[in-house]
Amino acid sequence: MRQEVDGMKSVHEGVLTLHKPHPLVADQRGNIDEMESKLTTEAAVSKCEVIQVAIVCAGHNSSRSMVTLIKSMLFYRKNPLHLHLITDAKAHLILSTLFDTWSIPQMEVSFYLADNVVSEVSWIPNKHYSGVYGLLKLTLPKALPSSLRKVIVLDTDVTFATDIAQLWALFQNMKSDQALGLVENQSDWYLGKLWKNHRPWPALGRGYNTGVILMDLSKLRSMNWPHLWRMIAERDLQTMLSTSLADQDIFNAVLQQNPRMLHEIPCHWNVQLSDNTRSESCYTEVADLKVIHWNSPKKLRVKNKHAEFFRNLHLTFLEYDGNLLRRELFGCSNYSTNKQASSYINHEQINEDDACYEFRCVKYIKYRTHLFYLDYDYEQESSDGSSEWDVTLVAQLSMDRLQMIESLAKHWEGPISLALYMSDTEAQQFLSFVISCETLANRKNIGYHVVYKEGSLYPINFLRNVALGQVTTPYVFLLDIDFLPMLGLYPYLKRVMSNLHMSEGNKALVIPAFESLRYRLNFPKTKADLLKMLDVGDLFTFRYHVWPKGHAASDYPKWRSATTPYKVNWEQDFEPYVVVRRDVPEFDLRFAGFGWNKVSHTMELEAQNYQFIVLPNAFVVHMPHAPSLDIAKYRANPLYKRCLDTLKSEFMSDLSIKYGKTFPVGN
Amino acid sequence: MRQEVDGMKSVHEGVLTLHKPHPLVADQRGNIDEMESKLTTEAAVSKCEVIQVAIVCAGHNSSRSMVTLIKSMLFYRKNPLHLHLITDAKAHLILSTLFDTWSIPQMEVSFYLADNVVSEVSWIPNKHYSGVYGLLKLTLPKALPSSLRKVIVLDTDVTFATDIAQLWALFQNMKSDQALGLVENQSDWYLGKLWKNHRPWPALGRGYNTGVILMDLSKLRSMNWPHLWRMIAERDLQTMLSTSLADQDIFNAVLQQNPRMLHEIPCHWNVQLSDNTRSESCYTEVADLKVIHWNSPKKLRVKNKHAEFFRNLHLTFLEYDGNLLRRELFGCSNYSTNKQASSYINHEQINEDDACYEFRCVKYIKYRTHLFYLDYDYEQESSDGSSEWDVTLVAQLSMDRLQMIESLAKHWEGPISLALYMSDTEAQQFLSFVISCETLANRKNIGYHVVYKEGSLYPINFLRNVALGQVTTPYVFLLDIDFLPMLGLYPYLKRVMSNLHMSEGNKALVIPAFESLRYRLNFPKTKADLLKMLDVGDLFTFRYHVWPKGHAASDYPKWRSATTPYKVNWEQDFEPYVVVRRDVPEFDLRFAGFGWNKVSHTMELEAQNYQFIVLPNAFVVHMPHAPSLDIAKYRANPLYKRCLDTLKSEFMSDLSIKYGKTFPVGN
User: Fold this and answer.
1) Pfam families of this UniProt entry (chains A, B) (predicted)?
2) Range(s) of the domain holding residue B560
3) Percentage helix, strand, coil for chain A under 3-state DSSP, each rounded to 5
4) ipTM
5) Taking the model in full, what pTM does it have?
6) Which of B302, B519, B627 sits opposite A627 (nearest CB)?
């Protein structure tokens, strides 16, 4: 939570003055290297011992930052881990989906909803909402299960540069009353002389940083911790009025009153990188850093060689392929919580000798999925009742179509749900792209859902289902990313749906699709424009040259002169772009890569007796791009074609059984 | 070198039988974990102590494999390193360029040409050429400088999973005569009972693996090592006839005679993953692995969970962004060999307040460059004298154009030099792409030069210069990757150059450029075909709609009816695709991304009084693709345009000074 109060801290801590260290602290410090070298030998953690970690996490951005922490922890760990996550609803959705799909062996994750304990700290006067989450660390002895006796508590903005077992081992050095292991604060904040009338909360010497805490829950419980910190906080709040550094102020006030509770940890277990700290004197002295704390996650200038060092360390885990962390720990197999869950693909369901093995696997892969990768905030308009007809555009893409998002956002002002198929590195590039793109940076009604790459086939229908699954409006417009809707399609759809009584029965509104074969297109502003361009050959009906069946059922000749919506019948291989209810059937996962991924879906709509109604004044236009790698693979590989045929007939047969109908055999 | 003799080993070691360990070995082993825990405390390596490492490396594939080793070593290291590389000419070119451009602080690299010592071992009967390089480890005490007293010797196919300082520390445990620190061999090879009449070289018990050696050079020198191993090898060769496992056989024979020289290292310092080894009993016992030895780098099946563990570890460093390893070691600044060289970009040359700072930087960035990333073997035909007119196609690309390589290779059977701008991860994808592509897998006359991504601009001219710099034919054809040459252009050019007396004076043969705006193009087979397609609008002259000036000087109307080469004059903004001598001026590095990168080059040709001669029966056709990100940036960013204008006028002014000519001001 340090991150979210950072704006405030970096202003306050901006001045560096050196003071004589508090005598008590000086006594305790000793020689760090010596202390450390003793610890690594004396305090070994036994093989397969479970290490307990608690993190408070709220909101989209903290969730993203926490993933980097988790990756660094997993990279170096050699022990089973148990994560205890105290989250708000947003972070809970994101992180429970992420860990479920990540399937990391020998890591258990427990969630605790912040709402249940927020009342314990919400009475504390606080400068902004996120501060409440910052304060939640105070409630851990109560919030965590009583069977849990000790836990490492981390801020979301720390990165490990070593095995966390070494930190866990330090618990063994905590004596009698020592219930909180902490690193000294590396700024001068608590010395209280940063500016005139600067009055920080009371602390021992420089105070202690709560980004990394060894918390002995048993000892705290036996000291009646909730009562203890509350008494001291209430007393100090009479003069302080509010906390400045959230939980850290209160922990320091408690320690100042009860120094025996403190166990000091060497500085390199929490190297604090906010502006003007004394952290440099820590990291240049020791041979290795253990934990970096990005108190101030602002962009580091390249010209500072230290900054570059830390930036590289951070990028290492930011860009690290999280799938590689699914490695088993040797000899700790007993700990696997759930054999089934710990495998991200259930191979047993497929016969390995099947020639279509690779294609069949796709259906069973749990792709690691990070929902709402960026800030998302969409409130449906409801005062005028228009939310009743609100519609979200649903699409999926990989990096090579990234630029399309901007154009799409310009053509569709309504909510959008996008699934993005990317590597961890590409996710970072995507992040920079959105931040630097004016059109997108301020749009909060686009939900970006990152699905991490796995295997060689583009899981198009998995992506569609992920994007579809996060829609909150009653209707969805199922489109592909290489299409641009006509300007004004969003309000047009909302109007038309109300007239068509869209909520009654199964209806699919068909938006006719056209195609430009040229790069430079003056996008048609009206239907009249579009018809003119069709006549002179600047536009074509979609896939007119190669796959007319896909859209022929829309009846383009009729559409030319239509002024009112008209019904059409489903035909074989029909794959129109449609507006449907959000609870439409999911896309069939066996179709990945090129071929039949939409055809199969339209067929299921037909099986459910959907009416296909073509809208007379709506259209989308396919924008040119180089052929996708998947099409190239399809063309090159006879096995791909053969397996696709097998999957098709299996799908048809499943559909017949499910709906008791038979369909004509396609090609 | 293990890798290159692997085919042989994995056959021989394919059977697993367990034998009673040799008594001597059993005594020495003891409890590994206990031994290890002693070592980490007793034998600390002091901060900033330089760790010496020697590696023998020959050929393209070993160079690539060695980079993964180096990355893993750098990732965990906290000490300065000095690499001693014994290489053949190919590996020397590749690795010296790589390390020069990598600019890793606190890592020194010394090269030793294998040719100088190969005679010491080439007399040993050996089954294939690479074996000579395998044997070179025997010569290290002589080949390495006498000031070097101890060194860690590694095969190229090992990966570190821990800090190499821990291995270096084991030198302190080597007593009196112990000159070679080795891990026991984890296969049954030396037990000599794998099959009937299996007669391995003599060894102590299971023998020792030479993939990781702690070599005390001083002790070996004082024992007259060259004499020692030679005597034993000569004697054993009388009965053995040749070595099977290269140096490893001879090291084992020497140790069998001189067991006092051996210091055994715990098994996890060389976990040998060839088929059916006893390595599993090592890696499931210990808490952590230190060094993995990929004796058998074949594809590991996903269904084996151990295989997956090791594959992930390997991929971690294969795909790791090497640029991130340019981090400085804190507090070891004294060791920096060369301050200038250790910075991959010399910032001092640019004023940071310059609005065009980002654009000016590009010129000074040393992009990490891995030449000849894949096998390359091109012998110019010379018997018939045709090599006199041989010509290499030069181009550059990033991942989004990868598919173009295949088409290009089909249209151009001659040598090609390609610079590829990629991340480390993309380089792996590129590797798989080439291996799986029939057309490319067997072509050895394509030089692939990987330039690793750095910063946000596509360094188009740096890439062109890299590709140009590795050409060995007298002529080059400077093309862009999105063009396909007419079929038969390669032999046509060689014929035409001989007729045109290409070697006399400065000549640039212009190949007229056309453009298809449609995806599906029936590529014109002849000039007549092409003219027909022009007439019906299926093709256009290149950039006819948006930038006619670039190629107008080729005089398309004249070309239509031309049957013989004709001269044209340079005109402003001319940027034709040309065939020129290899020693043509380099492309100007200040132009990166979109704009003026070729125009400036053509201008310099004009300044050097090149004759521009258009070929009547040659053409190239631009294939459609979505606009590049660089063009999008150019269009979106007014600063980009302004800076490009500044760079243009600076280039013009530099050119005027260099050649004493003035050029009309462009746009």
Assistant:
1) Glyco_transf_49 (PF13896), Glyco_transf_8 (PF01501)
2) 369-659
3) 40, 15, 40
4) 0.73
5) 0.82
6) B519
